[in-house]
Design brief:
About 40% of the residues lie in helices and about 20% in strands. The chain is of the alpha/beta class. The strands form 5 sheets. A 5-stranded parallel sheet has the order 2-3-1-4-9. The longest helix is centred in the first third of the chain and has 25 residues. It starts with about 25 loop residues before the first helix and ends with a helix. The mean pLDDT is about 90. Bound molecules: zinc ion. The site of zinc ion has 8 residues, from loops. The site of zinc ion (ZN) has 8 residues, from loops.
Length: about 350
């Protein structure tokens, strides 16, 4: 991000030369134990009696869901709840289409909604919402969040998708009181991912038309890669055995990369900067890129996202997969490496442990 500088988090441990394959779940467990075992136990101990509320703020496609889900996987999924506002709004959209569920929802809102527009107008805004902008009145959104949270037992919360606009930032300051988690610490988790990373994540994204699994031709390959000799194009083959070798395809619009979501990215950046300058609320800063010149000092090689490229070996009739560290330019124009999710989560765990204990 321009304007504010997130520190590089050092995940490299002096004197430890052991290397891990971070794609492998078992090796990942050993990796987290080595890099953050002490802090993992501290957070688990804390969560026995307490919880927290964390707001994830990062640009679209910054990996918010990935990091919080991996955090939960490491610390204990039964203690942590990833709450996506976007998913909630979509689910409620479905409820509104069902006569019985709709009645229940409306009667809940009659008792709990307070806002500047009538409940009827608010519900109609929810129904007509454009799924891209999710323009649901904030007061209605908060009543709905409260309802969802009351349904579940108390857990630590990762909130994804709120605050979404600048006007919602001040609402987030009162959020924990609103849902009755009065003594819980609230934390902002700010994620800095260069736009060039978001761009390539979009441009090379491929989706299985059958099971909808998403992969990346350049950054997250499948086991089998095919080659279309007519089009002279490489393609990913879905790993899911049920899909029987289904060819993964590009979603319409993805080829444009960040061009199509520029406006959203600008709003997201303003939001991050605003949250960054708030007083009185602890912040965790996650930075996804490390300048190549400084990498040796801060990170281990295996923590860098690999980039894949392919060669067609005609005489052997197969595709050869090449792998090398992925290099991008960050938003300041420094040649940088992109980090895999696990080192981001190590940084998250360590900063979280500091705040909570
Ligand atoms: Zn599939």
């Amino acid at each position: 991000m321009k304007g504010i500088q997130f520190p590089i988090f050092k995940t490299k441990l002096e004197g430890k030369t052991q290397s891990f394959n971070l794609i492998d779940p078992k090796e990942r467990v050993a990796y987290f134990e080595l890099k953050a075992g002490f802090e993992i136990r501290k957070i688990r101990e804390y969560l026995k009696e307490n919880s927290f509320i964390a707001y994830l703020l990062g640009k679209k496609n910054a990996g918010k869901g990935t990091y919080s889900k991996m955090f939960a996987e490491v610390i204990g999924p039964e203690k942590i709840f990833h709450f996506s506002i976007g998913d909630m709004v979509r689910e409620i959209g479905k409820e509104l289409g069902d006569r019985k569920l709709r009645k229940e929802l409306v009667s809940f809102l009659e008792e709990n909604y307070r806002g500047w527009i009538s409940l009827e107008e608010a519900i109609s805004a929810l129904e007509k919402r454009d799924t891209k902008t999710l323009t649901v009145p904030t007061e209605l959104l908060l009543a709905l969040v409260k309802r969802e949270i009351a349904k579940k037992e108390k857990k630590a919360l990762f909130i994804d998708g709120f605050p979404r606009d600048l006007d919602q930032i001040s609402f987030s300051l009162f959020f924990r009181d609103l849902i009755g988690y009065r003594d819980d610490p609230d934390i902002f988790i700010l994620i800095d991912v260069p736009e060039s990373i978001i761009d390539e994540r979009l441009k090379y994204r491929r989706v299985c038309p059958l099971c909808k699994t998403s992969r990346n031709l350049k950054l997250l390959s499948t086991e089998k890669v095919g080659y279309d000799q007519k089009l002279k194009e490489f393609y990913l083959v879905c790993d899911n055995p049920n899909c029987r070798g289904s060819k993964m395809v590009q979603k319409e619009g993805d080829e444009l990369g960040i061009q199509a979501i520029k406006e959203r990215l600008t709003t997201d950046e303003k939001l991050i900067k605003q949250a960054f300058s708030l007083y009185g609320i602890p912040k965790i800063l996650l930075r996804n890129s490390v300048p190549v010149a400084e990498a040796k000092e801060y990170i281990d090689d295996y923590e860098i996202t690999p980039a894949y490229s392919y060669e067609w070996l005609a005489e052997k009739n197969r595709v050869k997969i090449n792998e090398k560290p992925w290099q991008i330019f960050d938003d300041r124009g420094n040649k940088s490496f992109g980090l895999l999710p696990p080192p981001m989560v190590v940084s998250l765990i360590k900063q979280m442990a500091d705040i909570l204990t």
